[in-house]
Amino acid sequence: MQRAKQGREFRMPGALDGVRVLDCTQIIAGPLAGALLSEMGADVVKVEPLEGEPWRLQAELIPKESRGFLAQNRGKRGLALNFKNEHSEYIRNALFRWADVLVTNYRPGVAAALGVDYESARRVRPDIIYCENTAFGREGPDSDRRGYDIIAQGMSGLATSNPNIQNGLPIWVQFAPADVVTAVAMAWAISAALYHRQRTGEGQAIDTSLLLSSLFLQAGARVAA
């Protein structure tokens, strides 16, 4: 929230003022989690590939800028970096030292290949809080598969909650509920981990998934049935 005072703008303090977040995420769930942290006062720096993340190209408002991208990345600073460049390690480690929190949403194994996994970050910043979101979790037969909200809806059965049927098949719920709930869960878990670190000095590794969020949304209905 911002208000004007004596002709100058000032920012009301937030619960996460002073917290520094390195946001290495794309599309909806991860970026929205970063936006929520920013709204609570955190300084969020979004890292993108040199060509920008794919969500910029979804229904562009102006070249390489879409409404969805702007909505999910509000309140952040931006940085373009090629993690595969031979000289990127120096910059990456400097960012790890700067950050209190690192957020990623790659498939398991991709973060390690890019050098932004928990172990790489923890070697530089032992008390870092690392939050990783995947489609299907880090373990299990589908852990190495990529996926989006619509796929998690189908695999969890959440799509059947939409009463609209097309050609005898359910239609996905179109406000991306798995993405939105996952974003809230990520921001909530990161906030709890920051409190834990304040009390103990310990960092944490947090694991979230779109599939888990889709199942969570149906918990009441499934138990009641």
Element-level helix/strand string: EEEHEEEHEHEHHEHEEHEHH
Strand content: 15-25%
User: Which outline best applies?
Assistant: globular
Number of helices: 9
* Model regions low in confidence, pLDDT < 50 over at least 5 residues: 1-8
For this entry, what is the oligomeric state of its chains?
single chain
CATH superfamily: Crotonobetainyl-coa:carnitine coa-transferase, domain 1
CATH fold name, please? Rossmann fold
Q: What does the radius of gyration come to?
A: 19 Å
User: Portion of residues in helices?
Assistant: 25-40%
List the helices and strands and how they pair.
Layout: E1 2-5, E2 8-11, E3 20-24, H1 29-39, E4 43-48, E5 60-62, E6 65-66, H2 67-72, E7 77-80, H3 88-98, E8 101-104, H4 110-114, H5 118-124, E9 129-134, H6 149-156, E10 165-166, E11 169-170, H7 177-200, E12 204-209, H8 210-217, H9 219-224
Parallel strand pairs: 3-4, 3-8, 4-7, 8-9, 9-12
Antiparallel strand pairs: 1-2, 5-6, 10-11
Helix pairs in contact: 1-7, 6-8, 7-8
